[in-house]
Specification:
The chain has five helices and seven strands. The protein is α+β, with helices and mostly antiparallel strands. The protein has one domain: L,D-transpeptidase catalytic domain-like (Beta Barrel), CATH 2.40.440.10. It has a seven-stranded mixed sheet. It is globular and about 45 Å long. The protein starts with 14 loop residues before the first helix and ends with a helix. 47% of the residues are buried.
Amino acid sequence: MLALTPIAPLPNVPDTLRQAIRQLHAALGPAAAALRPAVLEQACVGYLTLHPTGRIERGGLLAVADMDLPNTTERLWVLDLRHAKVLHRSLVAHGEGSGAVRATRFSNEEKSACTSLGFYRTADTYDGIHGYSRRIEGLDKGQNANAYDRYVVLHAADYASPNYIRQHGHLGYSRGCPALPPEQFKAIIASVRVGSLLLISGPRLTSRWLDGRAAGRRFLARGWE
């Protein structure tokens, strides 16, 4: 298995915020042991930068998927920031265009069948070909802004289950959607109500929302609210 891609600390993040993120990670406990601190930092900085822009209406909740981790591991977390709790942790599939056990290619293009990195706002739910699903809106121009039109959504898939791993040694692949286990998808989709923030992180993630100074100002003023 290839080594995980190193993630440099974000620039301009105040020490007070870095310390708060370290404390949050510790408080999340064993359920977040595999959530890499650098990925949590990305997610928290993006949350703090985006929230005051009005794009994210639901405060205190943050979902993050680390697509650099192998798809045989539970690499999606839904976090309650105010109470430092892991609400959900689950497997999540990536797009077949992005690679095999490890996702290495990412695209915003139609018909790429790739996962797109970046920050997303959760939108409405509907009943589609995969049943109960939630649409997501990409907030990073050039990286994931086509997600809504591509019908990249949160939905259940049999190929995103522990049983599939036992049979095949890895998860199956979506057309770019972060597909969820049938046993968990309803609870996860319900928890990330309209206006919640999702980060899909992976190698070479860039985003205008990874603004350490803006995040520091927001945290000083409002904490995780």
